[in-house]
TrEMBL record:
Its EC number is 3.1.2.-. Coiled coil: none annotated. This is PaaI family thioesterase. The lineage of its organism: Bacteria, Bacillati, Actinomycetota, Actinomycetes, Pseudonocardiales. It is an enzyme of class 3 (hydrolase). Keywords: Hydrolase. Residues 60-137 form the Thioesterase domain. The keyword Hydrolase applies. Pfam families: 4HBT. GO terms for molecular function: hydrolase activity.
């Protein structure tokens, strides 16, 4: 299974697992930033991301957009993991709270996304990012539109 048409035949969880199992997954923001997939379950996903100096803001700490992208990814994929075949989704709203600055020095971030509610036309999810010491770095909520 390597085409969008093939993936459309699978449930959201099956499609995510199949995509990430490919030797070369299709281009996506996660591969561009270097995200790793740790867990894919129905309603919950966990990704990791090593920070890099290129991800720094002008103050030398991790740019907030990196955490926001990581959170958007895990929360949206948590929603995706609950959907039936041939069902799409998109982020309607993203709210991120930054708790502490992160050094852009190769430290590993771990993000967990969990669904709160999956309805017919919208879904909500929450996410948390922790650093290598397990300290909370950022947390977020999202609302996704479901395209049936």
């Amino acid at each position: 299974m390597t085409t969008a048409l093939d993936f459309a035949k699978l449930s959201g969880l099956e499609a995510l697992r199949a995509m990430f199992a490919l030797p070369e997954p299709p281009p996506n923001i996660g591969s561009f930033l270097g995200m790793g997939v740790e867990r894919l379950e129905e309603g919950e996903v966990v990704f990791t991301l090593p920070t890099r100096p290129e991800y720094a803001n002008p103050l030398g700490t991790l740019h907030g957009g990196i955490c926001a992208t990581l959170l958007d990814s895990v929360m949206a994929c948590a929603v995706h993991s609950t959907l039936p075949p041939a069902t799409g989704y998109g982020t309607l709203e993203l709210k991120v709270n930054y708790v502490r600055a992160v050094r852009a020095d190769g430290g590993l971030l771990t993000a967990t996304g969990t669904t709160i509610h999956v309805g017919r036309s919208t879904a909500t999810a929450e996410g948390r990012v922790v650093d290598a010491a397990g300290k909370l770095v950022a947390h977020a909520t999202t609302t996704c539109m479901i395209y049936r």
